[in-house]
Predict the 3D structure of the following.
Amino acid sequence: MFRTISGQSANNLKPQVKWVSDYLRRYKRLLFLILFLGLATYLCAAGLMFISGYLISEAATQPDNILLIYLPIVLTRAFGIARPSFHYVERLVSHNFVLRMTSDLRVRLYHALEPDAAQKKNKHKTGDILSILADDIEHIQNLYIRIIFPAVIAALLYLLAVLALGIFSIFFALFMLLWIGVMIILVPLVSLAINGARRYSQKGLRNNLYQSLTDAVLGIRDWLYSGRQADFISNYETNDDQLRTSYCRSNHFSKRRDFFWQMLAAVALAAVLIWISNLTSHGNLSTSWIAAFVLAVFPLIDAFAPIPEAFSNLPLYQDSLKRLNNLEQPAKSGVITLPEELVDTPITIRLHNLCFQYEKGHSVLQGLNLTVAPKQKIAVLGPSGTGKSTMISLIRGDLTPSSGTVQLNNTSSASLGDTIASLIGVLNQRPYLFDTTIGNNIRMGNPLASEDEILLAATQAGLHELLEGLSLGINTPVEEAGARFSGGERQRFALARIILQKTPIIILDEPTIGLDPKREAELIATIFDELKDKTIIWVTHHLRGMERMDNIIFLDNGHIAMEGTHAELLQSSKRYQDLYAMDTWGELKTNG
Amino acid sequence: MFFSLRHALIWWRGKVLENYATSAGKTLRHRLLDKIFALGPSFVQKRGTGNLVTMNLEGIRRIENYISLFGSKLISILIIPPLILIYAIFLDWKSALTMFLVLPIIITFMILLGKVARNRVTQKYQSYRILANHFVDSLRGLETLKLLGLSTGYAKTVGATSENYRKATIGTLTVAFMSNFALDFFSTISVALIALFLGLRLLDGNLLLAPAITMLILAPEYFAPIREFGGDYHATLDGKKAFDDVQTVLDTTITAKSCAEGNIASWSESTRLVITDVTVGKDCTTGSESQPNRLETFSFSWHGLGKIGVIGASGAGKSTLVELLGGFLNPKSGEIRINDANIPNLRHSDWQKQIIYIPQHPYIFQTTLADNIRFYTPQASDEQVQQAARQAGLDELTAVLPLGLNEMIGEGGRALSGGQEQRVALARAFLDAERPILLFDEPTAHIDIETEYELKKSMLPLMQSRLVFFATHRLHWMREMDWILMLDKGCLVAQGRPEDIFKHSAYQALNDIKKAKKTDV
């Protein structure tokens, strides 16, 4: 059983060391420094005890020459000061190493996620997954500080100790090689085999508990209305107890193992005592060394003691490493510059026979034809899942058509890369507000904008009154994800950003969803007033404001099901009449 | 011998403390869960879901850890150093004196440096928070960065901010580790000093070797518990904080009195609900527009079944009214009567088990579609679930799902669109014919007009022969209602039959939409 499990985890760990080993190589120097300092800490501790033991033993013989113990006296002081100093510096350097590596890992993770960021259906979309990945990096920090560094330092100490013994006696050195080997290699491996699997399953159980509790708390109303909350609590407690039992088992194992391990250490201590006594009794060595050798063993035991537990925690890092390694590193693309024909000219968008499928046999768009002239305003409607978002992604060039073309004048939009952002601005359902000031958030539309331009854009977006009311004005922090502002206000911040971005084409992707009719009407009025000189593609979910549009298209199953102006559709389509009648029922009543 | 005895004792100590901690943790967990369910959704909203979940899992674990860790350390520090000291006095009182004198110095330094470190951290807390969150913030806003064309260059900012964070952190750690260094330094130096003194006195022949060596072995053991005590200081701080957090939740009192069982009649054609002068939350005069959860001197009565529409702008009090009716907000003043019984509040299982609640985003549990549909009626058969799914218009969805009704949905499972979520909620309602009251809170606000049009066809039959409260912005629903309540800034400004209300002038004032449009055209 041991073999299968340890073999398994060893296999699992193999491909995962990439995110670890890369950085070991890059920061070789810092790494050596850490290992040296760690080693020095324990050597000083051992040295202190060794010299102290020698000192008092030697002193007890009351030597005639005081100078004989002068050197040991100086050394005890030196070791006494050096040990904590080395330890202090080692901790700082290792944290510095780990934090530096974190910076690199973050940039690397960012690069891995960046290319797909604008695609609606990308796999890392939800905030939770992003947070998990960010947490994984923190876990790697612990992997270094708690496992890798102590284990390597212990291994080095082990080698040094055995080599040092080898000077005196090859046989005893071989015996200790074996014995300490059992203590810091065999016991940790057995511990990994038994407790490692347990720790791993505990992590899974814990995640399940997290999920089920989050699920229950989010759905607390339904639990209360259903009157079944007692069922949930008892079910949850059963699962939690299962986890607790598992914890208890692994903790008991740890305690038994530690006791056993300490007994092994006691045997090692006794062996050293017997060996050194033997050595001195044969007159090879002065008896003063007995205490020295025996005392020096204690700090070494301290260095080795945490290794078995550290090893059994190894599987906890498995998932984090696996997730990070699964992220492909994208190929570096060259710098794209905007073609001449798109600089400062009116732009016509042409969709020709556009088809797209995410997976084979499941087409989202099927032969879409559409031309949007400069400064034209078009509305796109259709039930969810009919390809509105896909169409937007294709126009922005985030997706490449399966067949057909998307052209801005004569250039294919997918070839424009990030330069598309200078042509097309997007206002979507939930624009993200970064955890900085309002001013900095608006400035993202154009990082070179002056303070005055930012204020102007904010005023145009209808934020004047709001900013007046804030004591810090434009320098007010928005706080995490803009939680302190309402939905309508957040949209206006994003609108200011887009006004500053000064693109000729704007895509509105259901920006008014969740706003009440009054605020919706106000926001739409602001948007169309401020953006009247631009091409607008407006994805919307109902018919408010359709009178303003030059063209309205209804998508259904990847086709254009209806097309025309508001007046045309109202005249020609029964379906449009029904929908319009429903949408504006209360208003028409009072009008008429 | 002593060595094994010592470790056997450590083993035993750990076991006893762990058992104690586990049983204490279990009790706390149960009380906390009960309390959260008793306090209900408004409390959850205030404290945050993540916060409560973490408190339940992480927090209680920290408390247990705190109990066992702190306990074992306390035992160590209270027993070991004094015992060693007493033994040392008999063995060699001069060394004992040295050990005794060093102790206060170590503790003073530990406290002083610990304080300095903490001050440093609190001073910079704000900038730390931003630096620490910057990375997650950037990842969450990645889509926006991409749309603005900033995403490629932003990698540099991510790296630079992370480096700034590293420098700031190392700056703090320099001080924070200092307290450990001081502990280490003084205890090591003390050992060195003791060794030195012992050596000198051995040299003079005042001391025998055996007690000297014993002293030397005991000296590090004397300091070890103190060092350990300082070492996991943060773990103990975390544990104490978690304990305080849990305690504040447990101490939250449920202010409302509950009424005796059996007071609330099952709703039928002859039941009467009378609400008189009920005020919820803050009052109109001081509350600004953005203050939610308020309703002032609200009076309303209804007899039997029927459909009641609730309209008004955001913040007018629609959701507050629905929460009041659902029993999740308690009236501050006023009176609620059902038939002739005076009900202090509707947070009562007799009332709540009559309700089906359908909000803007019905909650979808992480389980199969079928189990989601039978959430209110776990005993429903597969055929009944299938029937309900058909009535709610879920056939199209189940046809494309590989596992049909047994497909996993919710977080982590297959994502549903807003319209499909509504249909799941409708299916729950179709399945549970026993519940006579329907509460709708903006059920179609996020849904495109064509889906809404289809959804309406499924919803209308559900509302037959029930008591329905329907809060919405979408006015076309009002045509189907029997009675309309119009709210503005927490006050009931008009009520009546739909045909009357939409001629009423108050509606004109409330709906600035046309005004906005007129000035615009």
